[in-house]
Amino acid sequence: MRSPVAVSGLVLLALLAVGALFGPWLAPHDPEALDLDRSLAGPSGAHWLGQDELGRDLASRLIVGARASALVGLIVVSISVCVGVLIGLLAGYLGGAVDQLVMRAVDVLLAFPGILLAIAVAGILGPSLFNIILALSILGWTGFARLVRGQVLSLREREFVLAAKAYGASPARIMWRHVLPNVLAPVVVQATFGMAGVILAEASLSFLGLGPQDIPTWGAMLNSGVDYLLFAPHLSLVPGVAIMLTVLAFNFIGDALRDKFDPRAQPWV
Questions:
Q1: Which DSSP category does 203 fall into?
Q2: Which of 145, 151, 159, 129 is nearest to 167 (CA)?
Q3: What ranges in 95-128 are assigned the alpha helix state H?
Q4: At residue 51, what are phi and psi to the nearest 5 degrees?
Q5: Which of 90, 89, 257, 80 is nearest to 182 (CA)?
Q6: pTM of the predicted structure, to 2 decimals
Q7: Are 142 and 197 in contact (CB under 8 A)?
Q8: Any bridge partners for residue 57, and if so which?
Q9: pLDDT string in tens for the chain (269-residue length)
Q10: Which domains does the chain have, with CATH numbers?
Q11: Within its chain, how far is the Cα of 183 from the centroid?
């Protein structure tokens, strides 16, 4: 809270959370209501951010669209953290053949460009929110697995782990009670940056028409404004700024958490 950058990130994320939770009630207009007589109209007193090519209120669509971005980010990062932490913990602590097998599998998956693989999966399965989550989760866990595995490789030879072994603690208990708590700090930092990446990837897929078709999304709004960029730039500017601010907010918080958890950055070091 002493970091102005982190506070600004928290404020932006609070606005995103409010929009995601209460969007349908906060929206000043029906996001699907058409007003063809005022299509492409700029900001006004009744429509703060203007109207799109069908006369729909951009502010309402922006608020409702926050739910899709937040939902995809939370679910994908949660799945990636759970799977990646578990696999990285087992690979790093058990070592040997388990470690080699897991790391070779991770190397194979990382050989594919992430966004291209997500486009292929979403394109094959069809445009929907569930398919975007699935497509982004396929590779999302690999970064967490490599991070946790590297941390565990150094922790498993530390004195407190050797002492737990000497007392007869089981490997499962050592991993759960002694190793896992010591790897959570970098995982939390990685998760904040992961949220930014997932929201940007979801916007990219929605921009290409692979997102859900039944609800407004920021990527789809950005795509719909491309054809009117020269004479109605607000159609692309509004969702583009929303995506940029959301990604910046998560990066600001990630930077602040990284500094907080880094012992070299503490004043007593």
A1: H
A2: 159
A3: 96-110, 114-125
A4: -130, 155
A5: 89
A6: 0.88
A7: no
A8: 51
A9: 677 888 888 998 888 888 888 888 888 888 888 888 888 888 888 888 888 888 899 989 999 888 888 999 999 999 999 999 999 999 998 888 888 999 899 888 888 888 888 888 888 888 888 889 998 998 889 999 999 999 998 888 888 888 888 888 888 888 888 888 888 888 999 999 999 999 999 999 999 888 888 888 899 999 988 888 888 888 999 999 999 999 999 999 988 888 887 655 554 44
A10: 4-21+57-262 (1.10.3720.10)
A11: 20
- The encoded tokens of residue 43 equal 């900001």
Spell 108-139 as b/e; 16+ CB within 10 A means b.
eeeeeebbebbbebbeeeebebebbbbbbbbb
How many angstroms separate the CA atoms of 205 and 212, rounded? Answer: 10
DSSP type of residue 226: G
Going from the C-alpha of 202 to that of each of 97, 124, 143, 174, the distances in angstroms are: 36, 16, 18, 37
User: Which residue, 27, 94, 49, 26, is CA-closest to 225?
Assistant: 49
Q: What is d(CA 138, CA 35) in angstroms, rounded to the nearest whole number?
A: 41
